[in-house]
Amino acid sequence: IATAVVSIGGVYQTEGVLAAFVAESPRGVAATSLTLPLGPYAGTTSFSLLMYANGPGETLHFKFQTSDGTVVDLQERLTFEINGVEGSMPSPFMLSGNYSPPPSTPPPPAPSPGPPASPPPISPSAVDLSISLNTGWTWVSLNVIAADMSLAALFATLNPPFTDDDYIKSQFTFTQYYSGFGFYGTLTEASANTMTMYKVKKATAGSLTFSGEPVALPLAASLTPGWNYIPCPYQSATSLGVAFGSATFLSTSDTIKSQMDFATYYENFGWFGQLGSLTPGEGYKM
After folding, report:
1. DSSP 150
2. 3-state SS class at 83
3. Torsion sign, CA atoms 187, 172, 7, 91
4. In the chain, what are the domain boundaries?
5. What are the boundaries of the region Disordered (predicted)?
6. pLDDT value at position 56?
């Protein structure tokens, strides 16, 4: 993942599309931007880029499409690292090119951080979801939904709380935590009504409890070729056979994995492997 600032012809870009490539194969696109609110680059536009590769060691290069449609090859190169992090709010990953676009308007002033969020109100039919976070990365998912699904509300009970450089990322967006400010990134709220999970990176282990209404089932699934982030939407551990009993997209060699185990699907047989069920609070790749 990268928090990047793009300079074209010496001008910081306020809009456009940033993309990462290995050779000519795209490995990540950032089409949305945010204004850096703190640090020496406060007021400058940043692009939150989630990148992937076939393995560590691949060389990434970058292109930027300006607001007038011009595609610029950027000078910098980056060696891909699994779970690597490039740049931050006070020290972004700087990318540069030589094309001079038309003058742009000055960026808007940096927003002021809002007051800390309180846990959302609990309805009489609400249930609690308890999640334990490891030191390092934890794959998590939600099986409840509340009126306030912001990250601040979701992690309001986290103990111990987040510290600088802790991260949360979905399959396509991410956010970083800064002490005294909160979360900064394109991932701003969680969802329990979509087929997704989240990867949380924390410097110290912790736990949280989040309350909400149980997710309405069945939960529609729309999967793409390759890996998809998958949640456990159920209120109790549910076998793979039951969870995917109505799925028509499964074929031999399809695989689902948790952080520790996996299972493979075989037509006319079912699932085979150490992973036998989906567990509330845990996330999966399929």
Report:
1. B
2. coil
3. positive
4. 2-97, 127-214, 229-285
5. 89-122
6. 82
Cβ neighbours of 101 (radius 10 Å): 17
pLDDT, position 122: 45
Strand blocks (E) in 16-158: 17-22, 25-30, 33-35, 45-49, 59-65, 71-79, 93-97, 127-133, 136-140, 144-145
203 CB neighbour count, 10 Å cutoff: 14
Predicted local distance difference test score (pLDDT) of residue 272? 87
Smallest CA-to-CA distance from 61 within 108, 22, 115, 16 is with: 22
pLDDT computed for residue 201 by the predictor = 93
- List the Cα angle 233/238/241 in 5-degree steps: 110
Burial track 118-128 (b if 16+ CB lie within 10 A, e otherwise): ebbeeeeebee
**Which residues are bridge partners to 26 per DSSP?**
21
Residue 268's pLDDT is: 87
Q: What is the pLDDT of residue 109?
A: 67
Q: Please report, as a single letter, which amino acid is at residue 158.
A: L
List, for the chain, all residue ranges whose pLDDT scores fall below the cut of 70: 100-124
Give the chain's largest Cα–Cα span. Answer: 63
Which pLDDT score, from 0 to 100, does residue 38 have?
78
Burial of 218 per CB tally in 10 Å (0-12, 13-18, 19+)? exposed
Is 154 strand, coil or helix? helix
Neighbouring CB atoms inside 10 A of 185's CB total: 21
Q: What confidence score (pLDDT) does residue 180 get?
A: 87
- What are the tokens at 208? 């949280």
Cα(23)–Cα(232) distance, integer angstroms: 37
Q: What is the pLDDT of residue 130?
A: 95
